[in-house]
């Protein structure tokens, strides 16, 4: 186990809290980009956490998760939902990468898309290991289609009809960053929940898969934080902070609605019904104008 993963394990052993959310971002940047500082990003994150305290940063959030996760059926459905969301996220990222005009941004987005494509399959492996034989072979074969199977060797292309087939903006990177932080909080809660269900002989395999997920999540938090910092230097400071606050507010709304349905990551179909969901992507220009970065 790498030193970075050991450090993250120590951090994630704590109950959800605003301090934990800040610490996750800090550890991610420090371990992935040790020579990089992100003062504007962290200042805006701290302000947003004060103004819009996230429900996923509370001890109650962890308590609700633990009370639901004792039910095997709920836990199994949760893993399938995780797989679905990772596959959907991979397709969004792939389209953004295909349309990026910055070679560095494109490479990072493509790597992120490939990671999430692989994560979709990892969650299905966690399902197999935690609940052996619970899914029929026919349904398991269908579930594999949740992953688009992207690899770094594959040539990029915008997915037809995708609202993400456009040049990525700071707003995209900011929303990715918040989403990955929330996913890391979920990851911390999921580890002990799966351990309570899985056969002892599968525990080591599950731990290795979770460590791989955690390593990637920290990498995604870090690179998006760095890009938000770099692009945000050209934005109006007050409007930049307001955008961060708005996007955290949006995620808080989504999270609260999910809790009302006893879910921790809604399905793609459910997500499509929410006007605040990040799947509802329109023209990014109005948002960029709000922070002083729109086209003149």
Summarize the structure.
By secondary structure, the protein is an all-alpha fold.
Describe the structure in your own words.
With 296 residues, the protein is mainly alpha-helical. It has one domain (3-290). The chain has twelve helices and no strands. It has helices at 3-12, 18-32, 39-51, 59-69, 72-99, 103-130, 137-143, 170-195, 203-232, 237-260, 268-272, 285-290. Helix 4 (59-69) crosses helix 8 (170-195), helix 6 (103-130) packs antiparallel against helix 9 and helix 8 (170-195) packs parallel to helix 10. The longest helix is centred in the last third of the chain and has 30 residues, at 203-232. The radius of gyration is 18 Å and the shape is globular. The termini are far apart. The model is unreliable at 266-282 (pLDDT under 50).
Secondary-structure blueprint:
Layout: H1 3-12, H2 18-32, H3 39-51, H4 59-69, H5 72-99, H6 103-130, H7 137-143, H8 170-195, H9 203-232, H10 237-260, H11 268-272, H12 285-290
Helix pairs in contact: 1-2, 2-3, 2-9, 3-10, 4-8, 5-6, 6-9, 8-9, 8-10
